[in-house]
């Protein structure tokens, strides 16, 4: 490896952000490091070198000085800890993950150190709606940053609307490691198993998904498995009440959050993935398309989803899945019926999905593309 790239994230790393880890671990020509304020899921995302502020020894003077300055609002971490890491490691590229991190790193961009910022969703929707001052902050970011990445055309339009020059903006697809996923196409017989995955937040549309499942499968040999957990919007009890009101409480199984390999087993053993995403009342929306849609297709599974955000960019309606309008429960139910009434069609969709993921979302191809983008701003 020759040049270096520092990946900056507030916390390294939430289980829902495997897409960052995929790129990080597949660099070929750029030597990467991670810088963050805190650690989580270290046993899952075991990567070095990492620079994490809260991992500093408590006897370290820097820990207390930097923390006190930030707490008192005198000098932020970006002007103390981040500055120290950048001075010591001196990367050629600084890659900020999420818009607010890009804002913090603007002062550290130099003629010899380019700034790349990836937008993922809430940072270009809910955050701006709830905190309008970010529009002004983003103006400075767009002026000084060198490259801005999004995962699809719908997200691109959101970032352009915030003032990002089109000349600085590029689509960088979400990457998955297809070698870790063994396809298993839907079976011709046996009970139908439908899977939903995600945090219990409004934009994931899980109440809609439960109602659509009930409309098709109430009292039939079918199970809806829900992988994920609470995130301060819905509780498991909330979703359980929806299932009970629809008379499918005995057909719905909650697994909680799972380790990545366990989650992949759930994807591999389901018959169809259900992803009823929509825009939340708060303005929160999918940044592009949930990663599970890619991993389901790589697993050979058809997807029933909505036309929300960049989902139509990764699911071809009628070819790798069936799409309905966001919030359209009857449309989701009809899409489920179209799939489950023709098992051969489900298998064909699965086969096309596997091919598409290998061609368009494999991390080895996309990591090379990302490094070529870095080259282009050097």
UniProtKB/TrEMBL annotation:
- Identify the residues that the record assigns to the Glycosyl transferase family domain, covering every copy: 181-352
Q: Which domain of life is it from?
A: Archaea
What residue stretches are annotated with the Glycosyltransferase subfamily 4-like N-terminal domain? 65-180
Among the Pfam families in the record, one is Glyco_transf_4
The molecular function terms in GO held by this entry are: glycosyltransferase activity
Q: Which UniProt keywords apply?
A: Glycosyltransferase, Transferase
- State its Enzyme Commission number(s): 2.4.-.-
What is the protein named?
A: Glycosyltransferase
